[in-house]
Every structure is written in structure tokens, then in C-alpha cells.
């Protein structure tokens, strides 16, 4: 067993909480994970984990080992980056998490270019709309749209995305075009349950006047892509982030409603663990995000 492999195995088991999850993160068998842990325990004559049929837990010695292992692996990665130089191509696996709609409609089309720039790097794009535990799930970079609350992560601000109101030409022809915020009371509106505001839509006029409208809604969804599709089918006025409907606005499939009013704005962030050494692969991807979306 290589020492660095052993250190990385202990880190993976601690951060994922199981041998099975650690094996998936490291792309090795569960048996090999167990073997590496056993070899370390035998060599040092200590027990790193208390094992039961249902779960594992760190011993005091295991916790101490893990803290040192993280520092050593970071120093090793820093040494490798320093030795090979900034001009060398990053290697290994880069796991990137992103919201589904942003990943499918904006990020995915740029992935081939990134892969061509760094041919020795393998990239896994993990798309979901749920909270992500980066350490437990082995995520190197998380793209988040919204607010940043985790102080254990570094958050690089990439850009901002606005929330717009829009509807299909068919719907507006049938039900009329709102000319003032209060007109929304007469329309069927589509709620995005990802937004805390719910059915209370905040709007700000060009003159800075703020108003919150309680809209009428029989439709709610947690997927921006689905909301866009509902709106295109004439289901009502959608309250949706710009990146989810940019193509439809350009093609005329959807028309912005009350364009002179602004509403919510969310930040787009690239997040990664708050550590002294940031790997070359993470630096390269964050810089790429800045170039494409900044």
C-alpha cells in the first residue's frame, strides 16, 4: 500500500461515513478500502474506527490520524503542483456539482471546451437541486445559485442572475398583458417552490418604488425547467431565473412580463473547501467559470 493512498483512504472513510461510500469516491473496491485501513491499524497498532454491522465511528486515535492526514495530503498536493509547475496540465478526477437547470442549459455546453483545454483531467458533472455536503460526497467544486451560508467553504462570486416574470404569447393573447403589478391578481401564476418568497412576489419599479404582490396560483414546482415548459404551454405567468428561459426569450416562445420592474437577484458562486492548498484542477475550473460566466 502506498502511504498517500492510505492517507486518502482514511480521509475518504471519515468524510463519507462508510467503507462503501469511500470506495465509490476513490473508485476502488470496498475490499481494498478495508485492506488499506487494516494495514494502517496493524502497522501502527491502533484502531482507527469502531465497526458495527450498521455503522462505523472514529476512535480518538482515528480522529487524531485524520486531522494529520488531511494536512499531509494537502502538503503533498501542494508539493506536486509546485514541482510540476503552473504550466503543467492538471490530472485526476474533478467532481463538479451544479443545479440541474443551470448545468443542463448553461454549463454542459462548455464542458467539451474545458476537457480540450485539460485533456489529462477527468470531469464528473453531478446535477441536483438538493443541499450538497461537499466533503461527504467528494465534490471538488460546487456551483450554487443563491446565498452562501457555509463558512467552511470558499465562495467565489461568478456573476448574478435575475428572476423575471414571463408568459407565452398564447397566454397573453388570451388573458391580456399586465401593465402594472396589481394586474397580476387577475392572472394564473406559477410558483417556484425553491424561492422562499412563495406566492409573495417582490417588485421594484425603475423609480425605486417597492411593492409585494400576493399572486394567485394553482401551480407550483421545484424545477425551473418544468416551470418554463408549463409557461410555454400557456399555463400562466412564470416567476423564474433568467438562465432558465434565456433561449425562449430570444426565440419569442416566452415574453417578459412587466419588464420595467425588477425583482430578486441571486448570486452564482463557485464553492470549494476552505483549505490552505487549493489544487490545480480546482483553480483551473474556477478560472474557466469566471471566463465563461463572469
Fold and architecture overview:
The chain is of the alpha/beta class and 294 residues long. Helices cover 40% and strands 27% of the residues. The chain contains 11 helices and 13 strands. The strands form 3 sheets. Strands 3, 4, 5, 6, 7, 10, 11, 12 and 13 form a 9-stranded mixed beta sheet that branches. The protein has a two-stranded antiparallel ribbon with strand order 1-2. The chain is elongated and about 75 Å long. GO terms for molecular function: DNA-binding transcription factor activity; sequence-specific DNA binding. Pfam families: HTH_1 (PF00126), LysR_substrate (PF03466).
Name its key features.
single chain; 294 residues; alpha/beta; Arc Repressor Mutant, subunit A; D-Maltodextrin-Binding Protein, domain 2; nine-stranded mixed beta sheet; two-stranded antiparallel ribbon; 11 helices; 27% strand
Number of helices: 11
Number of domains: 3
CATH architecture of the largest domain: 3-Layer(aba) Sandwich
What gyration radius follows from the Cα positions, in whole Å? Answer: 24 Å
End-to-end separation in angstroms reads 43 Å
CATH superfamily of the largest domain: Periplasmic binding protein-like II
Described by strand count, sense and barrel closure, the largest sheet is:
9 strands, mixed
Structural class: alpha/beta
Low-confidence stretches: none
Structure summary, number of beta strands: 13
The multimeric state of the shown protein is single chain
Average of pLDDT: 89
Amino acid at each position: 500500500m502506498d502511504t498517500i493512498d492510505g492517507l486518502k483512504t482514511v480521509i475518504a472513510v471519515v468524510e463519507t461515513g462508510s467503507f462503501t461510500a469511500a470506495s465509490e469516491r476513490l473508485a476502488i473496491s470496498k475490499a481494498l478500502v478495508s485492506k488499506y485501513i487494516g494495514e494502517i491499524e496493524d502497522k501502527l497498532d491502533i484502531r482507527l474506527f469502531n465497526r458495527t454491522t450498521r455503522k462505523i465511528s472514529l476512535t480518538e486515535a482515528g480522529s487524531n490520524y485524520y486531522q494529520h492526514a488531511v494536512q499531509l495530503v494537502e502538503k503533498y498536493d501542494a508539493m506536486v503542483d509546485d514541482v510540476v509547475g503552473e504550466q503543467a496540465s492538471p490530472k485526476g478526477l474533478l467532481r463538479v456539482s451544479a443545479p440541474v437547470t443551470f448545468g443542463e442549459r448553461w454549463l454542459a455546453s462548455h464542458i467539451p471546451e474545458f476537457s480540450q483545454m485539460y485533456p489529462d483531467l477527468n470531469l464528473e458533472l453531478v446535477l441536483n437541486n438538493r443541499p450538497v455536503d461537499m466533503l461527504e460526497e467528494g465534490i471538488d467544486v460546487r456551483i450554487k445559485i443563491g446565498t452562501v451560508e457555509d463558512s467552511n467553504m470558499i465562495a467565489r462570486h461568478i456573476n448574478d442572475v435575475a428572476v423575471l416574470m414571463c408568459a407565452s404569447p398564447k397566454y397573453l393573447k388570451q388573458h391580456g398583458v399586465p401593465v402594472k403589478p396589481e394586474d397580476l391578481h387577475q392572472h394564473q401564476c406559477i410558483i417556484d417552490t425553491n424561492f422562499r418568497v412563495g406566492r409573495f412576489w417582490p417588485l421594484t419599479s425603475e423609480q425605486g418604488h417597492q411593492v409585494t404582490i400576493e399572486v394567485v396560483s394553482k401551480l407550483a414546482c421545484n424545477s425551473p425547467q418544468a416551470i418554463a415548459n408549463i409557461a410555454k404551454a400557456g399555463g400562466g405567468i412564470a416567476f423564474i431565473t433568467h438562465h432558465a428561459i434565456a433561449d425562449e426569450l430570444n426565440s419569442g416562445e416566452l415574453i417578459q412580463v412587466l419588464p420595467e420592474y425588477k425583482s430578486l437577484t441571486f448570486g452564482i458562486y463557485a464553492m470549494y473547501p476552505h483549505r490552505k492548498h487549493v489544487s490545480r484542477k480546482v483553480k483551473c475550473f474556477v478560472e474557466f467559470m469566471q471566463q465563461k460566466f463572469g
